[in-house]
Amino acid sequence: MAKKRILSGMRPTGPLHLGNLHGALANWKMMQDDYECFFFIADWHALTSDYDSTGPIQGYAMDIFMDWLSVGLSPEKSTLFVQSHIKEHAELFLLLSMITPLPWLERNPTYKEQIAELKNKDLSTFGFLGYPVLQAADIIMYKANGVPVGIDQAPHVEITREIARRFNHFYGDIFPIPETILTETPKILGIDRRKMSKSYNNAIFLSDSPEEIQNKVSQMITDPQRARRTDPGNPDICNVFSFHQLYSDQETVQRVNRECPEAQIGCVECKRMMAENLIKTLEPVREQRAYYEAHPDMLRAIIEDGNHRARGVARKTMEEIRTAVKI
Ligand code: TRP
Ligand code: SF4
Fold it and tell me: Which of 2, 101, 172, 175 could share a disulfide with 164, CB 3.0–4.6 Å?
């Protein structure tokens, strides 16, 4: 039986961090063997909010692509591409915009939240309101059966399903209705114990140097009840311990779990061990990245190849669509 097809994308708004690694990336990486995967950089989507400062977008796109390859997304197994290089997305976006009722977009919870959150930006634009329409074009262009996303993106996939149904209703049964495949939220937090996010300035990036990692780990907030070295701590509520569970061996995890509540180990020592293991874990990622940084032609060729494959699929779908719409 043919493999089911999945598709997902990321906006190029900055380099990827450990939250992305244990969330989206780990999930995508696993899916590569069981599904036919399309992963892409949604650079047009980045424009919807950053239209007044487009300078960094291309650089971020390259950063993310290198992050993808460095953690093991495979250009052989998956089609990795850049949205703005496949102009067909813009054409399908236009056609879908004709059939998308405005109220579907206006009641989109993400839309309302973002407008409220980013008060310093003028987001009362056509493009920003149409964000989910472009996303629907991204998804149905490849006739994706599933879309792995975090919970924050679930409303967008829901709108995609509605748009796909409406298209099929008007023009014939062309698109599968894609399923939302929810990505679990990683249990590690940022160094300040809030959700790890580049906009909170609390993230450890995949591309951070060992020194940067050490420095960030030393600033991590631990069990807030443990003010003094002699106070007992509680690993279960300590973010550093969550990191240990991901990056340290079983023996170290057990030692911390035993000694912290007895105040036999101090946070400085505990963090030092964790940082060391984290740095070691990320070593191969840093090496891969250094390789692509030293071989930009190789990176470009990989992107071109992915674009080429995506474009082939997109062209075929657009031909089918033009026939169906009779335009
Ligand atoms: N909106 C998504 C995000 O911000 C990115 C995205 C664009 C996407 N098009 C997509 C995700 C299609 C999944 C499928 O994370
Ligand atoms: Fe957290 Fe380690 Fe300190 Fe315990 S010793 S509170 S686990 S940093």
Answer: 175
- The 10s digit of each residue's pLDDT in 110-136 is 898 888 888 888 999 999 999 999 999
pLDDT at 185 over 90: no
* Token pair for 205: 């990036």
Q: What domains are there in the chain, each with its CATH number? A: 5-188+296-325 (3.40.50.620), 208-289 (1.10.240.10)
Q: How far is the CA of 12 from the centre of ligand 1 (A)?
A: 11
Q: Which of 188, 216, 223 to probe ligand 2 with, by most ligand atoms within 8 A of CB?
A: 223
User: Is 309 buried (19+), middle (13-18) or exposed (0-12) by CB count in 10 A?
Assistant: middle
The backbone region for 172, taken as left when phi is positive above 0, alpha when psi lies in -120 to 50, beta otherwise, is left
Atom of ligand 2 nearest to the CA of 265: 5
Which three-class secondary structure string do you get for 62-84? HHHHHHHHHHCCCCCCCEEEEHH
* pLDDT tens digits, one per residue of 310-320: 999 999 999 99
Residue 1 confidence (pLDDT) above 80: no
The minimum-distance atom of ligand 2 relative to the CA of 239 is 1
* Dist. CA 45 → ligand 1 center (Å): 8
Determine what percent of the chain is predicted with pLDDT higher than 90.
Answer: 94
Distance 9 CA to ligand 1 centre (A): 5
